[in-house]
Amino acid sequence: MLKQIEGSLGIAEAVALCRPGAVCAYPISPQTHIVENVGKLVKQGTLKDCEFINVESEFAAISVSIGASAGGVRTYTATASQGLLYMTEGVYNASGLGLPIVMTVASRAIGAPINIWNDHSDSLSQRDSGWLQLFCESNQDALDTHIMAFKIAETVGLPVMVCMDGFVLTHAFERLDVPSQEMIDSFLPPYEPKEYLDPKEPISMGAMVGPEAFTEVRLLQQRKMVKALQVIEDVTKEYRALTGRNSGGLLDCYNCENADLKLVILGSSVGTAKDAVDELKKKGINVGIISLKSYRPFPYEAMRAAIGDTKKVVCLERAFSFGARGIICPEVKRAVEGTDTKVYTAIAGLGGRAILGSTINNIVDYALNDKFTEEVTWVDVDHKVLNNYLQSAEGVTFPEGPIADSALKDSLRNVRA
Question: Residue 191 carries which DSSP code?
């Protein structure tokens, strides 16, 4: 059914279609509307046989989710930013216990300074937590991915984060095609937990494991992650056949055939990039987009195939690993190891700064004209803001244009001198 609705309501309706037995809710922008709307669906009786649990913190939300899932119930929760960090201990426990919880991360910057707008620093901070991480281009993609996430999680035996851009998607009103309950019931069968706590047949979950077996436990967890690559593809294929939509998957390519440059992008910026690439194509500039949907597990083989023989790749990243380099770029470089493809990082869109068509055009210009000489370059920098502090504090200024690693190092040398 076609509906013109807010993204958050679309996600709430998608979650309800999956018939969770427990929803653990604590508000934090920009995910609040999602759990609010799930609560309304429970109260209205649209979502039946579901315990909607208001808790006192994000740590309680993940803790109750762990308890519900361990008790054999299909479980859902949502969070963002500082809330995800507050959950971190439980986030690791959920994956270590192999609990198929589905959680929306309405991606938002992490403070300080306080910032409530979108980037990917929250979700990517949990990249080593053992959760699958699926990123969404649009609200339709997000709606469909949530439905697939339950099946993926329950098939693999690991929790799934569905990462959608906060405000950009969660608060945007769009036309969404919401599947019928009958359609989803045919796709997602009633939940049958593989292992759960039952007083009649007592077992231990999460017991102490010493050095004699901990490595093996982690290897088994990694094995599930590797298995998830095929599961994601299988579930996506089944869902696409059911709906006729191109949602989900490991990655998606746009205009990639014979491209001189390919951009690897996560999330809603893909839409902006597609529009920019269409305009560039009219001018004879052929740029492809690889929309990375599954960041964990990372689809190395699929990425290598998508890049093909393209010699230049730029990863547009909305997060950064301080004291190191980009977060996406090193994974892409591993995918093309042994080839002569050059892979660069463009840092942009932090803290909700808009990624515009001009941003994409500048990145394409820098890349095709060999202005990206180093692995990491910061683009769309407001030099007035930057230099306002540096000039008075350190006697250093940066010229307009992209700022690469060497420029940062040179500025430090100037200060020492």
Answer: P
